[in-house]
């Protein structure tokens, strides 16, 4: 596993053996950050169910001001901390060792990335309901293509879904962000040019 772009491009990241974590594939990670583009720079990024931290570290490499990492697997937490230390990123990162549902309310972030284990469907519902109580500017959920997420969770509304193989990314933004984007008439909340109606 490696950092794809930015300040730490091509730097190797420690991973852990076994199936305790499911790393976001490099190609999907690259697509995610291509979509987010310059929105990452200067933002606060939250990587929940972080595994070994590749997504949050990618955000830091691309200019995020700070990243929160949440992971309950002890070996994965150790790998996150080692990866951050190897890149000199400790001062720009906060690592929470424990369940994401307990840590989420303590981590205000503009960009939230959620990647619960694919077999824990109730975890998706609980996490999205919790995030919706104090919605950030943008929530990105990685999930199986076989899992049908709701179109809305409280004030959060899905703006797009991207599929790659067995994986999908769903983007959610508060309704007021969508209305703001409509007022400007040019960009959706995730920073991608809207398609004109045909």
Report what the structure shows:
The longest helix has 13 residues, at 74-86. The protein is α/β, with parallel strands linked by helices. The chain has one domain: Rossmann fold. It has 6 helices and 8 strands. The model is unreliable at 183-187 and 191-198 (pLDDT under 50). It has helices at residues 26-36, 54-61, 74-86, 100-103, 121-133, 175-184; strands at 44-48, 66-71, 93-97, 111-114, 138-144, 152-153, 156-164, 167-174. It is globular. An 8-stranded mixed β-sheet has the order 3-2-1-4-5-8-7-6. Helices cover 30% and strands 23% of the residues.
Features:
198 residues, alpha/beta, Rossmann fold, 8-stranded mixed β-sheet, 6 helices, 30% helix
Radius of gyration: 16 Å
User: Which percent band covers the strand fraction?
Assistant: 15-25%
Order of strands, widest sheet: 3-2-1-4-5-8-7-6
Structural class: alpha/beta
How many β-strands, per DSSP? Answer: 8
Largest sheet: 8 strands, mixed
Low-confidence residue ranges = 183-187, 191-198
Helix count, DSSP H or I runs of 4 or more residues:
6
Shape: globular
**Which superfamily, in CATH terms, is the homologous superfamily?**
Vaccinia Virus protein VP39
- Please, what is the average pLDDT? 88
CATH architecture: 3-Layer(aba) Sandwich
Helix content: 25-40%
| Overall number of structural domains | 1
* N-to-C series of helices and strands: HEHEHEHEHEEEEH
CA(first)-CA(last) distance: 41 Å
CATH topology: Rossmann fold
State the CATH class. Answer: Alpha Beta
């Amino acid at each position: 596993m490696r950092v794809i772009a930015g300040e730490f491009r091509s730097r190797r990241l420690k991973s852990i053996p076994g199936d305790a974590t499911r790393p976001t594939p490099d190609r999907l990670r690259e697509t995610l950050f291509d979509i987010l583009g310059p929105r990452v720079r200067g933002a606060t990024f939250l990587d929940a169910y972080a595994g070994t931290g590749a997504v949050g570290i990618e955000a830091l490499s691309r200019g995020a001001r700070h990243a929160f990492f949440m992971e309950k697997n002890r070996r994965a937490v150790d790998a996150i901390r080692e990866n951050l230390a190897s890149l000199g990123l400790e001062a720009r990162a906060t690592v929470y060792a424990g369940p994401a549902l307990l840590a989420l309310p303590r981590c205000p972030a503009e960009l939230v990335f959620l990647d619960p284990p694919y077999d824990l469907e109730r975890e998706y519902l609980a996490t999205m309901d919790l995030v919706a109580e104090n919605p950030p500017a943008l929530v990105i959920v990685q999930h199986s293509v076989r899992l049908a997420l709701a179109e809305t969770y409280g004030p959060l509304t899905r703006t797009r879904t991207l599929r790659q193989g067995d994986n999908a990314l769903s983007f959610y933004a508060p309704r007021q962000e969508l209305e703001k984007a409509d007022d400007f008439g040019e960009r959706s909340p995730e920073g991608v040019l809207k398609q004109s109606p045909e």
